[in-house]
Amino acid sequence: MTTVQLPLFPLNSVLFPGLVLPLNIFEERYRAMMRELLKTPEEDPRRFAVVAIRDGHEVATTAPGMPDQTAVPQRGPAAGFGEDPLKAFQGIGCIADAATIRERADGTFEVLATGTTRARLLSVDASGPYLTAELEELPEDPGDEAGALAEGVLRAFRQYQKRLAGARERSLSTGADLPDEPSVVSYLVAAAMMLDTPTKQRLLQAPDTASRLRDELKLLRSETSIIRTLPSLPASELTRGPTSLN
After folding, report:
1. Is the C-alpha dihedral spanning 204, 68, 26, 77 positive or negative?
2. pTM, entire model
């Protein structure tokens, strides 16, 4: 088993491979992380791991990138994550590559990263200025009938988009072609659907692409049916423009 040690960035959301992650960094522990990543030559990947925080666990008084000026700040790399941070995080996350790290005059950072590959969280180290983790990178197994399932998911996803647009009487932009590579389809649809974090986490940790697509097909049909009967559901940015990986 090949493992890597990377900086760890916990979020209240799920990052999927191929999807873009904009971050607004305020907390000192994450500022320290970005300062360290900036030491990596520009031609090399500036990698860190993103994991979702488990439901029901205490989180940092100041969520990553979203400062609460009224909160009493906790200190240390594991602040807000309990005595054993490993228990506060989901077991599978996504490695990200920070293509852009821009430091502002006040010491905060604007970051644009992209998910690259799934990884299993093995251990968490809180001995430094920020959390680091030992991770096992996970291959993407296509599974059985992934190609046919992807075609079905794309058809269902287009219908889902139309229903979302119709729920708010908006026009659906179709200027961009959707991908047809099964794993890309599976991650794009998982990120674009209006789902709660536990459901998105379930899709991220599916054993293979085909399993993820089967789950998504059921979800798309169910959600489209709900939208059809309850057209007053709130619209999302998905209905306002084409969905893109970039």
Report:
1. negative
2. 0.81
